[in-house]
Amino acid sequence: MKLTAERPFTNPAAAARKLVEIAAGIEPAQDGRIHIEKINAPFLYILKASGEEFGAGIKFAVERTWLELHESGTYVRLLKSEASD
Fold first, then answer.
1. What's the CATH code of the domain at 22?
2. How confident is the model at residue 7 (pLDDT cuts 50, 70, 90)?
3. pTM
4. Nearest-CA neighbor of 37 among 68, 4, 67, 75?
C-alpha cells in the first residue's frame, strides 16, 4: 500500500528542466527578463511542487547555465532554450 504520492520534482535536474520549459513558454519583458513569479506560480500551484524543489531546480539550472538568476531574485533570463546537458 502506498500512502504518499510520487513527487516528480525531487530530482533537481527534473525540476530544473521543467522550470526551463516553463520559462521558455513565457514572453520575456525588457532585456529578456522573466519575472520569477511567472515560473514560480505554475511550478508550485499547478504542478504542486514544493518550495524546496523550486529552489533546488533554480539552483541546478543556474549552475548548468540554463538560467541566469538576478542577484535580487526577482527575475531570471533564459540562457539556453533547451536543457540538453
1. 1.10.10
2. confident
3. 0.86
4. 75
